[in-house]
Amino acid sequence: MRHLHKYIFALILLFMAASCRKDIPQINDPGNYISGNFGEVFDSYWTGMNNNYVFWDIDTVNWDQVYKTYKPLFAKLNLYDSNDVRKGYTYFKQLSAGLVDSHYDLSFKDSWLKDSFSINPAYQRKVASPDYHNPIDIFNFYDTIPHHYLDPGWKRGFTNDVDKQYVAVSGTIKQSTLYFFFSAFNLKNLFNTDTANGVKRVEQYFFDKLKNTPNITGIIIDVRGNGGGSLADLNFLIGQMIGKQLDFGYTRSKQGNGRLDYSPWAPAFVTPQPGARNITAPIIMLADAWSVSMSEITTMAVKSLPNGHFVGERTWGANGPLTDNKNYNGGQFSTDYINLVYTSSLMLKYRDGKIYEGIGFPPDIEVKYNQAAFDAGRDLQLEAAIGLIR
User: Fold this and answer.
1) DSSP string spanning 116-152?
2) Residue 174 domain boundaries
């Protein structure tokens, strides 16, 4: 899931010597490989993961055993045989199935795999889980909520950006509670564009209401089904509602090629923005099992407020921030055979000392998905948030 592509977390890199385990000799930079056979394809991938993956100290996958098990299997394959290429795809799927990184996504350049899905272990686990449900239909946010729950005068809009569409809805409830839904995090970029767009109009409406509503009784930020996006939005949005720096956790990166060469933990925080209004009324995050990445980070930040709440379902579990690996010595990489190993650049630890990667962030008020209610035009999760404010 390719969502997070900017960073705002401050990392104090002290360049301390970290522990490093090298049970299998390091080979070469994966980007320098010229893979003439499947053994070399596997070597470049294994080495890249060994050096760049940030979760080795909490992941249960034995990476050395993966090498011992799969290197001989890949060595038997013919890189120029379509059946063997598909068998190699199956091996990659098997060996990565248990990886805890829920951003992880593996795609290939091989033309024989152009019709194959990228390998995404977290999605496969999600589909197989007993409480699996499809994402909430976007029309629930765009049509049902405005007409059934918001006061007259609500705003909604959408805009297309390259191959992605962004949707936003905002309005008031009983004139004093503010509601804001958006389908992905690109708020700052869309707001600062010179050209008008539907999402920008909704944002402006929400910010005007945030500034000018005299007695705000609550704010509901709805990130259900939101797959994430720009980390710059954390300050841009939540920074409008706080009066002082909000510390909500810690981040850590890789600082060396060794599997366990980590930087020290550094604070993760939100900074108040110019003209911010310090909101003391309840701020409620609505999130669900399809709230991913930046949606989870924002939910964690809001939940850290004394007036912050989280209503809905346990989130996806991909909360390690992503950015280009030119900024850190870890994260995503490519080889001459692999199009992209999409993986987190940083590990995030919440203020309670727990890491929620792979398991999702839990709500303090759980309201499960209810398809029958949606079919009847009712949104029980939103109703629970409104009830909490009242």
Assistant:
1) SPPB-HHHHHHHHSTT--PPPPHHIIIIIHHHHHSPT
2) 138-251+264-319+349-389
Q: Which is more confident, 266 or 322?
A: 266
Confidence at residue 390, expressed as pLDDT on a 0 to 100 scale: 79
Asked if residue 115 belongs to a domain, the reply is no
Q: Per-residue DSSP letters for 214-237?
A: TT--EEEEE-TT---B-THHIIII
Predicted local distance difference test score (pLDDT) of residue 327: 61
φ and ψ at residue 296, rounded to 5 degrees: -70, -40
How far is the CA of 290 from the CAs of 22, 30, 113, 134, 235, in angstroms?
37, 32, 27, 8, 22
Structure confidence at residue 3 (pLDDT): 39
Beta strand pairing call for 283-287 and 218-222: parallel
Q: Sign of the CA dihedral 15, 21, 26, 28?
A: negative
**pLDDT, tens digit, 9 for 90 and up, residues 2-20:** 433 333 333 322 223 333 3
pLDDT digits (tens, 9 = 90+) for 268-278: 999 999 999 99
Domains in the chain, number:
1
**Residue 54 placed within a domain:** no
**Domain contains 291:** yes
**CATH number, domain with residue 163:** 3.90.226.10
- 196 found inside a domain: yes
Position 161 scores a pLDDT of 81
